Amino acid sequence: MAILGAKTFQNYIDGEWVDAASGETFESTSPANGDAIGVFPRSSAADVERAVAAAKHAYEDWRLVPAPKRGELLFRFAHLLSEQKEDLAQLMAHEMGKVLPEARGDVQEAIDMAYYMGGEGRRLFGQTTPSELRDKFNMSVRQPIGVVGVITPWNFPIAIPSWKMLPALVCGNTVVFKPATDTPTLGERFVELLVEAGVSAGVVNIVHGGGGEVGNALVQHPDVPVISLTGSRETGVEVTKTGADRLKHIHLELGGKNAIIVLDDANLDLAVDGIIWSAFGTSGQRCTAASRVIAHEAVYDKLVARLVAEAEKMQLGYGWEDETDVGPVINQAALDKIHSYTEIGKDEGATLLTGGEVASGNGLEKGYYYRPTVFGDVDPQMRIAQEEIFGPTTAVIKVRDVDQAIEVSNGIKYGLSSSIFTQDVNRAFRAMRDLKAGITYINAGTIGAEVHLPFGGVKDTGNGHREAGQAALDFFTEWKSIYVDYSGKLQKAQIDT
């Protein structure tokens, strides 16, 4: 793939590609080697104002487009994503840093979501119920809400916009989209393909820029009743507070501190594969990453030795090179944060078993690379076992039995993903019941969600809403109950006669 270099991109507002009102710009560069990817408008509240006005105007027609027709647009979008899958994956390897197999998977998730939500255009089911009165018909229907503000992170720059925007669109809402400033080119391509699929002017708008300027303006805007954000817990709390005065619908996908439990009867080969993939896939930069391993004392030593050996085999490098197992982290601030947690872990008394250093040599010093890191002898209350690191670091905790394993797994403020490796069906079902998480895997890692099931977590991972599956429709629609009385007379429900 040819690097885009210093090509200049624009916002897309009301069907037109336009510069920021201020004329200011920022640059996107590759975390792999510092190459320039593109130049983007540094937008402000004035650009958000224009985009929201366009989306509000377009909503009045878009909500009346038959839902099956809205779904057909998503089918066309899915087809275009499929055609562009390899180019998008290559771009993702350069702009975000993912290794190519993962980048292709990121795009495939958006393809899957487009087909799934396209099908919802012919469903969007409501309910019919019997009435308690004669000659009366009852039903409920879903209705769109209005303009949706979509604020997405950089770690899944194609998949996560699809989780938010596609159900919003098929339900009849319009969108103002603020992609992450670390991956603006991928956000731009996402919108370009929606435009190519036939989305009408104003239905989808993209405004580039920072969270402080663009994100806050979206959250504060009185004509944006719905906000969907994936980000940190701290950002989620601020968005909730800001939107509270206007009683906005706020959907939050926030942090995780996910654990894989390995019991004494586990298939260790399978468990090691699951841990390595879950801990170090996407360089640990997933909200579902396995940053904790909870190991039964009977298998702890053997498991730790295997994990260290496998981690040390992993090849760091450019994501677009076939031999690379682990790409860069997203930026210097992320690199500094990850390394700070290595120092915290050592200071707390955990044993650094491997990794724990910024990688260099063979051109790696041009980017942001951190060696896969494994800590042993970790106490469940250590900061490295409680706080989200968002990097290629996992902490191994020894437990005596399944009771303690579940207690330790639940002993955090987050509750996104969880996993247990066991060949005992009774233990497996107990874990399904007792692990406090929105997702539980049996004999698999903590990553790999599918689009037709709800995605999201409990406790501080979010605010109770879900992405994907039927559950996504509940956030992007409101219920209306309808009563049709064809008796020809006034009938009084709930009146005791």
Describe this structure in words.
The protein is of the alpha/beta class. The protein has two domains: 11-254 and 462-481, Aldehyde Dehydrogenase, Chain A, domain 1 (3-Layer(aba) Sandwich); 258-442, 3-Layer(aba) Sandwich (Aldehyde Dehydrogenase, Chain A, domain 2), CATH 3.40.309. Helices cover 37% and strands 20% of the residues. It contains 14 helices and 21 strands. The protein has helices at residues 45-62, 67-83, 85-95, 100-120, 159-170, 184-197, 211-220, 233-244, 268-280, 300-313, 332-348, 402-410, 425-434, 471-476; strands at residues 11-13, 16-18, 25-29, 36-41, 127-129, 136-143, 147-151, 174-178, 204-206, 226-230, 249-253, 258-262, 290-296, 351-354, 373-376, 393-399, 414-415, 417-421, 439-442, 458-459, 478-485. The strands form six sheets. Strands 14-15-16-13-12-18-19 form a seven-stranded mixed β-sheet, sandwiched between helices. It has a five-stranded parallel β-sheet with strand order 9-8-7-10-11, sandwiched between helices.
Radius of gyration computed on alpha carbons? 24 Å
CATH fold name of the largest domain? Aldehyde Dehydrogenase, Chain A, domain 1
Q: What's the CATH class of the largest domain, please?
A: Alpha Beta
The CATH homologous superfamily name of the largest domain equals Aldehyde Dehydrogenase, Chain A, domain 1
Distance between the termini: 77 Å
Overall number of structural domains: 2
Contiguous helical run count = 14
E-strand count: 21
Low-pLDDT regions: none
The share of residues in helices is 25-40%
Class from secondary-structure proportions: alpha/beta
